[in-house]
Amino acid sequence: MIFQIGPVVPTNPDIPVISHFFAGAPGPPLLSFSLRPVLATYEVLMRFIIARFPFDLTRSDVLAAMEGVKPEPCTGESVIIGRRQYPVKQVGQVITGQDRRDFSAGEVIRAMTALGFTCRTVPPAPSGDVLAPAPESLGDAWHL
Predict the structure, then answer these.
(1) Do you know which InterPro entries this protein is assigned to (predicted)?
(2) What are phi and psi of 99, to 5 degrees?
(3) Which residues contact 131 (CB under 8 A, 6 or more apart)?
């Protein structure tokens, strides 16, 4: 059985393909996915457009690609993969093979969220004075 919405042509007729696109939008669908059998279960294979290139990804593909990759320090948006927190741009570079300047963090966040990963955005800047003066009761003791 084949489920099809939009101009997606399945490569394997035994795997149902479902795609989602915005009505009236030119070009290929922005998101499509198919179910492929993996050890008597089905895993969702999703197609994402990142930097104008299509990528077919599954959750296990991302886990395998990021296995053994040391996370860089997070200063902005991040994705939690396994027990590690990676910067969004690092994940996008590893899974697409593209330069970090070629895609936006939003494209990767959208893809990772759709695959079920937890994404975190930049925390808001704290309001008020971050470095409060030392209490008078400490005197000069705080100058170590």
Answers:
(1) SCO5918-like
(2) -70, 145
(3) none
Q: Which of 62, 89, 59 is nearest to 74 (CA)?
A: 89
Domain definitions of the chain by residue range = 17-123
**120 Cβ neighbours under 8 A, 6+ residues apart:** 77, 78, 79, 80, 85
Q: How far apart are CA 120 and CA 87, in angstroms?
A: 9
pLDDT digits (tens, 9 = 90+) for 13-43: 555 544 444 444 455 554 555 555 545 566 7
Other C-beta atoms within 10 Å of 95: how many?
20
Tokens of 94: 């590893």
What would the pLDDT profile of 28-83 be if each residue is shown by its tens digit? 554 555 555 545 566 778 999 998 999 999 999 999 999 999 999 998 999 999 99
Q: For residue 55, what are the β-bridge partners?
A: 48
Where does residue 8 rank: exposed (0-12), middle (13-18), buried (19+ CB within 10 A)? buried
Residue tagged 């570079």 (tokens): 93
Amino acid at position 39, single letter = L
